[in-house]
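Researcher: Re-running this chain for the archive, since the previous output was lost when a drive failed. Same request as before.
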Amino acid sequence: TYFPNTAEGYESAGTQLKNPIIANDKLLAQGKALYTIYCEVCHGTEGKGDGPIVQSGKYPAVPSYLERLPTINEGKMFHSITYGRNLMGGYASQVTPEDRWKLVHY
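Model: Regenerated structure tokens:
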């Protein structure tokens, strides 16, 4: 199923997309490695939105995962990683769909 890069696509992904891979220690370690490469620069080591690019003042503050997790599910996370959301750019060209699901698990 295709979910377009629209507000409607984001909401549909949130209700219809489920992570097709099962989490295990190896997969979570892979997700962590991917997070370190692609996400940590903005989101920070612990997802507090305090990554180096934010601390440098060159990029606006990023919401903490503690703030976001109650409002976002795995389908919305996958859509956000794919297309980007708000000021975040999309990662579809850099991160495979399988690796995006690993990031969602992590």
